[in-house]
Specification:
5-stranded mixed sheet, 237 residues, 13% strand, two-stranded antiparallel sheet, Alpha-Beta Plaits, globular
Length: 237
């Protein structure tokens, strides 16, 4: 996934990122600042060419300002001075896995979701699969509006009844059949096992768990996969 390639301006703020003092542009989100320093953060509803939406929650990080620590969505949280940011704490890792578990249960047929589940080392799904074809990430709606200037689709309904459709659920005259919505959709590409897979979770691309997180309450590196983890837990000192 490409990181933030923007250049910071002259007015910088200072904060702690995984214990290291760094500086970032106050106009950036925390996600942009974290990516600028080369740390990999999983995202699903976020796209650099579209307005931040903050619905998938996978980019969650842990911040501390004073004595209180809390989880925030990094794509929607501004960079502010004095923050202490942890991107791979045990709390963050467990939260991302839970979110991924819910997403996989909704759309187990998505290759992108299965790949992300393997990347996050998800090994079980405790919820009944819905086999739906949409996770309501809003990427297609924003793409159609902001990049294609068509506004041919949008959200309808609320809560559990929310879905994406054309105005009045009829063929839209604004739709140019450009295919941009399908191009950006994380669910359109089917998993390797096909639509009739026997298991909810594939785990075919799973690598290794960050064993250092259990010992230090934080992952000690942010490589995917971690080279120390490939060696095994006995090599982590």
């Amino acid at each position: 996934m490409p990181g933030n390639t923007q250049k910071p301006n002259g007015n910088m703020v200072t904060f702690l990122l995984n214990g290291a003092e760094v500086q970032a542009d106050p106009n950036w989100s925390l996600l942009e600042a974290i990516q600028f320093y080369g740390i990999d953060i999983p995202t699903l509803c976020h796209n650099e060419g579209l307005t931040p939406y903050g619905v998938c929650r996978l980019c969650v990080v842990e911040i501390e300002n004073g004595t209180r620590a809390k989880l925030v969505i990094s794509c929607m949280h501004p960079v502010t001075g004095g923050l202490k940011v942890r991107t791979h704490s045990n709390r963050v890792i467990k939260t991302r896995k839970m979110i991924m578990e819910l997403l996989i249960a909704r759309c187990p047929g998505s290759k992108k979701l299965q790949d992300m589940a393997s990347r996050l080392e998800l090994k079980e799904v405790r919820f009944e699969p819905l086999n739906d074809d949409c996770i309501l990430c809003g990427l297609c709606v924003r793409m159609c509006d902001e990049q294609m200037a068509a506004r041919a689709i949008g959200f309808a309904g609320r809560g559990a009844d929310r879905y994406i459709t054309t105005p009045f659920d009829i063929n839209s005259e604004e739709c140019r059949k450009c295919g941009a919505c399908m191009y950006i959709c994380p669910v359109c590409e089917l998993r390797c096992q096909g639509p009739q897979a026997e298991t909810t979770l594939c785990s075919g691309c799973i690598n290794t768990e960050p064993v250092c997180a259990q010992n230090f309450d934080d992952a000690m590196c942010f490589m995917v996969p971690c080279l120390s983890c490939v060696k095994g837990p006995d090599d982590v000192k």
